[in-house]
Design brief:
homodimer, alpha/beta, 434 Repressor (Amino-terminal Domain), Rossmann fold, 3 domains, 6-stranded parallel β-sheet, 4-stranded parallel β-sheet, 12 helices, DNA-binding, Peripla_BP_I (chains A, B)
Amino acid sequence: MATTSRTKRAPVLGDVARIAGVSVPTVSRVLTGSKPVSAEVEQRVRRAIDKIGYRPNGAARMLVSGRRSLVSVISGSTASYGYANTLEGIAHGARTASMDVGITVIDSAEPDAVTATIDQVLVQPVAGVIVLEFDRAGLAAIEAMPSTVPTVVAGGGSRRTGPRAYALIDERAGGREVTSYLLSLGHKTVHHVAGPTMGKHSGRTEGWRAALKSAGAKIPDVMHATWEPRSGYDWGKQIAKRRDVTAVLCGSDDIAAGVLRALLDCGVRVPEDISVAGFDDQPYVEMLRPALTTVRQDFHDLGARSFDALARLLAGVREVPTSVATPSLVIRDSTGPVRARR
Amino acid sequence: MATTSRTKRAPVLGDVARIAGVSVPTVSRVLTGSKPVSAEVEQRVRRAIDKIGYRPNGAARMLVSGRRSLVSVISGSTASYGYANTLEGIAHGARTASMDVGITVIDSAEPDAVTATIDQVLVQPVAGVIVLEFDRAGLAAIEAMPSTVPTVVAGGGSRRTGPRAYALIDERAGGREVTSYLLSLGHKTVHHVAGPTMGKHSGRTEGWRAALKSAGAKIPDVMHATWEPRSGYDWGKQIAKRRDVTAVLCGSDDIAAGVLRALLDCGVRVPEDISVAGFDDQPYVEMLRPALTTVRQDFHDLGARSFDALARLLAGVREVPTSVATPSLVIRDSTGPVRARR
DNA sequence: GCGGTCGATGATAACGTTTTCCCCACCCGA
DNA sequence: TCGGGTGGGGAAAACGTTATCATCGACCGC
């Protein structure tokens, strides 16, 4: 309120320089190590920095140097298991490379919502972007992303399908493996409760279908659930009424938990009457009774690999090879051989 | 490589101005709406912007205007249920206010790891910070955060304990409520499998203790688990051997799932022999058999309230009132009256 | 002892935007 | 017709840092 200083302006490089009795660029050199500085001057500068509690202004730094240290993650959600763990993997990689990570969730898959989101992301000084391709919103974001910004797609596909860098978990292979495993137990076919449709089918569903097809098994209609356990429960109720179902592959562990519960509530024995398998291997599923057979997907690793890919992109590598991890089947107690239904 | 242009420099305001035949500030005015511009000029400018695909440079913008639109979340994790949902709530609020959110995870609670993290966060042009106080790392981060940056603490406390703005879930009340409920069923006391220690005890544990104390019940030793279901399982095995336990409150749903499974595996009936209660109300817990009684905590709402608090702080409000939500007890089938243990 | 290289430092430009200040043309009322 | 307000727009300063270039001394080899 007085004439001189209002809210005690944050100290800047010039303040440090004056106190240390050196020039502004010298202070900068101490901070960035871009050029050697004599030990004595360095000490004076550091002392001055500590004294006034100086912190570099990131905006100014980025503006002039053009170096960007922000990686933005675009995603349709952050709370679900896969999203959250992928995000953690990315954050961990970024931390190691001393980069920052921003997260923007897309409200819906409406075209204008997507472009609005992208605009908001690209106004920031981002070095690159990682899009989580787990749902329609992610898919739409990839389409709408300008080709000029370094972009990595993290998702569940099996091969690169466009001009970007990809880090993937081969969900298709996972779906195939678990379906084949169920068939090998003697099931004539495997029914499938999928998550929300992505427009095109998800890798999990594709793998399931491929395995049935190559085994010459009948391909039942896909049952579409939301990601909620409740929704799985509702389908489980339906399934319990049918006599033709002996094996169910669910699009996620949460759905499987619901299906499992519904079956047991209806007096269906698992796995004696019906086998149930999930997808993801969330920590709790081995505590279900019976412990859930599922497909383990290492999302944390997926996040780490996406960040690696982006780092290479930023380092100037032209063609970053697509990195694909294969999920692994975890056999527990919810699946077993076919028996005569009591 | 040629003499003129290397990688086709990104278009800047000057380019737009030249094409539209106006001055640089005029383009800025169109973009920010800081001053009225004639309709005709505005149209020319917009056309030019679209034509060359201009995007404002956020760094330059922040540097000169001093307006910051970045909210940074500091957290010990992002993957666990509470963290992930709180983060989503924050992201949602930020999106509505068209601000950006950054996320930084602290590797450990080591003092230098914490200050390193904070340094990294504060180099960015942050408007404010939200610290997730769910673990030691978060606690340490709050201590080390300079008082000059607008900070909101999001956590599980019951009242403000320092000079910051707080958004809380009153875990203490939740712990008290569920414990009292169990006592009201006739249990002489309630045992407690807590999550990792936070140094000081967590609100959940405090509430449990307070309820026992005020009921004059014996206060058993706390059993400390990790957040892993497996760890809960191990404690469940121990508990099954004991004859004096009739009710167990767990520090999280995942721990409860483990305890539950161990008890059932050992032939202990739930809730007939032992009642089990969890904490959080993750979606899957109603699918456990028996469905888990637990304390519901709305983390998404916590995130939204933290962002609100920060927004007010940034709007210049001096004293932002602490916002406290009370968790609600969800009674399902895993808890019941005491019976003679068979 | 002298030209040349090197190491340390300072002066100045540059980054891309917003802000401030000023000018000009126009309109209105007296 | 003239003065004062007003609304649109341009010129230049400012933001805080790094990059570029110049300077100055010391040191080295011949």
